[in-house]
């Protein structure tokens, strides 16, 4: 199948009736894989802890199977803090349409799992009606669960110990779990936080800081915001221009905030892995893809060999199934 070439694309959004989103139509590409109309719509779902390569795999598969991507990360739905929330950049999207990514106003409240279920299910129907493959990708497993289960009760937390997790799904799903060994992922996530800070995350958080706003909803819960809100409360953003002139106390406070981000990122990653394993043990047929060697080598060639090739085989079989 012909692959797409990655170039810049202005952000656009598929129409929906939700009053919370301002939407514009976009052009689409016909799907290159033939699929009969099944009783249930076919959906590819990419899961994994933060930093394992879910966004990369979603784009790789979308370019090969003429797919459109629905973001299922509850922090990335907001149009702020692109670095802190690790939103995939426009060039990296390779012209693949992305939905529910950077669409909600930064000052909006939490998007509930029920609201995500409604928005994402409408998008799945619209994408499938155009003959394209819906690909759900993101680390918020509570969103994924809410979207996919046949019977959803918003009053219960399916991941609380002892609760029942249904394997009855309302879509025909192909689950791909991008996994990385614990030791390698822990080291990589720590290094990635340093790279994010070097790429402008500190400046992004400084611009977002508002001493008169103490809300703890929506994007304000993103890792990095509470950690640096405490720092900026002592050292206001306007006083942080020249790091070379910082006194030892300020440098120590900065390093403490960065370390907190690293620790909280690791806590998030472990929770994401635990929830995926819980879904898997409850009857969800989740294919595990080992991306450890790719993360260690930081190599596109290793990624294609160890993760992408197997993913393509799995998705091909899935699409050919009646």
Task: Provide structural commentary.
The chain has helices spanning 54-65, 113-129, 141-148, 182-208, 225-234, 248-281, 292-297, 300-320, and strands spanning 42-48, 67-71, 98-99, 133-137, 172-179, 286-290. The chain is an alpha/beta fold. A 6-stranded parallel beta sheet has the order 3-2-4-1-5-6, sandwiched between helices. The protein starts with 41 loop residues before the first strand and ends with a helix.
Topology:
Layout: E1 42-48, H1 54-65, E2 67-71, E3 98-99, H2 113-129, E4 133-137, H3 141-148, E5 172-179, H4 182-208, H5 225-234, H6 248-281, E6 286-290, H7 292-297, H8 300-320
Parallel strand pairs: 1-4, 1-5, 2-3, 2-4, 5-6
Short description:
The chain has 322 residues and is an alpha/beta fold. The protein is built from 8 helices and 6 strands, in the order βαββαβαβαααβαα.
Strand order, sheet with most strands:
3-2-4-1-5-6
- Biggest sheet features: 6 strands, parallel
Name the helix and strand elements from N-terminus to C-terminus, one letter apiece: EHEEHEHEHHHEHH
Number of strands: 6
CATH fold-level name of the largest domain = Rossmann fold
Class by helix and strand content? alpha/beta
* Tally of discrete structural domains: 2
State the helix count.
Answer: 8
Mean pLDDT: 88
- CATH classification class of the largest domain: Alpha Beta
Name of the CATH superfamily of the largest domain: P-loop containing nucleotide triphosphate hydrolases
Q: Estimate the helix proportion, in percent.
A: 40-55%
Estimated radius of gyration:
20 Å
User: Rough shape?
Assistant: globular
CATH architecture of the largest domain: 3-Layer(aba) Sandwich
Low-confidence stretches: 1-37
What's the end-to-end separation, in Å?
A: 21 Å
Strand content: 5-15%
């Amino acid at each position: 199948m012909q692959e797409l070439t990655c170039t810049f694309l202005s952000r656009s959004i598929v129409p929906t009736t939700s009053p919370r989103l301002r939407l514009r139509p976009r052009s689409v590409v016909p799907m290159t894989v033939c699929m009969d109309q099944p009783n249930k719509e076919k959906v590819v779902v990419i899961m994994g802890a933060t930093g394992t390569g879910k966004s990369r795999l979603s784009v790789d598969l979308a370019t090969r199977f003429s797919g459109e991507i629905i973001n299922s990360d509850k922090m990335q739905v907001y149009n702020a803090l692109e670095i802190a929330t690790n939103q995939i950049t426009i060039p990296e999207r390779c012209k693949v349409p992305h939905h529910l990514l950077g669409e909600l106003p930064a000052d909006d409240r939490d998007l509930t799992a029920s609201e995500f279920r409604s928005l994402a299910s409408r998008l799945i129907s619209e994408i499938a009606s155009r003959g394209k493959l819906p690909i759900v990708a993101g680390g918020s497993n509570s969103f994924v669960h809410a979207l996919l289960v046949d019977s959803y009760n918003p009053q219960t937390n399916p991941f609380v110990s002892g609760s029942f997790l249904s394997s009855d799904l309302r879509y025909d799903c192909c689950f791909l779990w991008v996994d990385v060994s614990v030791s390698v992922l822990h080291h990589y996530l720590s290094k990635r936080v340093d790279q994010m800070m070097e790429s402008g995350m500190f400046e992004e958080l400084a611009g977002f800081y508002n001493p008169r706003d103490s809300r703890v909803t929506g994007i304000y819960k993103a890792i990095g915001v509470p950690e640096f809100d405490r720092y900026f409360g002592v050292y206001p953003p306007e006083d942080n221009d020249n790091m070379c002139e910082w006194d030892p106390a300020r440098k120590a406070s900065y390093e403490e905030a960065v370390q907190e981000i690293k620790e909280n990122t690791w806590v998030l990653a472990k929770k994401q892995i635990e929830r995926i394993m819980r879904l898997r043990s409850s009857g969800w047929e989740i294919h595990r893809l080992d991306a450890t060697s790719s993360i260690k080598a930081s190599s596109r060639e290793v990624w294609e060999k160890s993760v992408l090739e197997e993913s393509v085989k799995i998705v091909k079989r899935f699409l050919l199934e009646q």
